[in-house]
């Protein structure tokens, strides 16, 4: 789908290279990337909001947002010496944003995984060069479940693993992201720097099935509700009372009730108990059921 989108834009806008990627809405981490005219290795850096792009290249960036949630990002590039992207070209690109975002939200992640679903954590160590220095057999299996989210790139780690490892190294604290895998389930990827060797040191990465509460939170991003309503729903999942939710969010109890009415309507449920049951049911069906 993403390559098709780039192909359509190629007939509308003039650019030399491009990349489009998916994001984890909760963390903003780039989870997969496809490219046109760019090497796949580290292409995700072009999608980082603070990235200036390649030296001398003109860039046009677009955050792919639907219902207030960022599902992806896109960047078009022109080689050094060519004209900058004009405002009208940026406006043309922007018109495609909501449609592309909705497509990323609703699309399957890729061809369905036909292997076994491993339900235990796998660990790998990523060196300062971005390459793995070692991994467990479980990690190797789980990485295959993630590998097909990107363009085929032999020897290159899945984008989500590279990004969380890089962010953990840059920030000096653990980074965690969720991603919908080819196994049609959510996997969580967590990275943390190992002691010593400074900013180019090794990073430990754990890949594992996401926890039920994480899956429920992820599913809430697919419902057309506001960020505040999403916060209310998350507190319902924690078993908070109306008064506790009002205090936590700094709003009145009546406003909490108004938000709940909208959430119930969107999800087709009639009570908090039904809301929790619905989201927990989705969590179970999305977490895989073939322990190894």
Polypeptide structure, described:
The strands form two sheets. A five-stranded antiparallel β-sheet has the order 6-5-9-8-7, with helices on both faces. A four-stranded antiparallel β-sheet has the order 2-1-4-3. The chain has ten helices and nine strands. A hairpin with a 5-residue loop joins β5 and β6. The protein folds into three domains: 2-106, Beta-Lactamase; 122-210, 2-Layer Sandwich (Beta-Lactamase); 214-286, Orthogonal Bundle (Arc Repressor Mutant, subunit A). The chain has 292 residues and is of the alpha+beta class.
Radius of gyration: 20 Å
What is the CATH C-level name of the largest domain?
Alpha Beta
Task: Characterize the biggest β-sheet.
Answer: 5 strands, antiparallel
Beta-strand fraction estimate: 15-25%
Question: Helical amount among residues, as a percent range?
Answer: 25-40%
CATH superfamily of the largest domain: GAF domain
Q: What's a concise summary of this model?
A:
This protein is of the alpha+beta class and 292 residues long.
């Amino acid at each position: 789908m993403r390559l098709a989108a780039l192909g359509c834009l190629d007939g509308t806008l003039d650019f030399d290279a491009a990349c489009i990627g998916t994001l984890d809405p909760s963390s903003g981490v780039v989870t997969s990337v496809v490219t046109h005219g760019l090497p796949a290795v580290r292409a995700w850096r072009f999608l980082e909001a603070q990235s200036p792009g390649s030296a001398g290249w003109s860039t046009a960036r677009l955050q792919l947002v639907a219902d207030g949630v960022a599902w992806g990002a896109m960047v078009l590039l022109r080689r050094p010496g060519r004209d900058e992207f004009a405002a009208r070209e940026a406006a043309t690109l922007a018109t495609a944003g909501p449609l592309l975002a909705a497509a990323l939200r609703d699309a399957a992640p890729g061809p369905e995984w036909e292997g076994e679903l491993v339900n235990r954590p796998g660990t790998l160590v990523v060196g300062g060069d971005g390459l793995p220095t070692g991994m467990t057999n479980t990690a190797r299996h789980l990485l295959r479940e993630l590998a097909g989210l990107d363009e085929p790139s032999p020897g290159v780690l899945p984008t989500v693993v590279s990004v969380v490892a890089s962010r953990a190294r840059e920030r000096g604290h653990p980074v965690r992201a969720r991603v919908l895998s080819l196994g049609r389930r959510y996997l969580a990827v967590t990275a943390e720097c190992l002691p010593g060797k400074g900013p180019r040191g090794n990073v430990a990465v754990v890949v594992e099935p996401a926890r039920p509460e994480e899956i429920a939170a992820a599913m809430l991003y697919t419902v057309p509700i506001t960020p505040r309503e999403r916060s209310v729903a998350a507190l319902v999942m924690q078993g908070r009372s109306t008064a506790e939710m009002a205090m936590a969010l700094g709003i009145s109890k009546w406003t909490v009730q108004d938000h709940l009415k909208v959430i119930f309507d969107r999800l087709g449920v009639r009570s908090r108990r039904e809301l929790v049951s619905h989201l927990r049911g989705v969590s179970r069906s999305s977490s895989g059921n073939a322990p190894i």
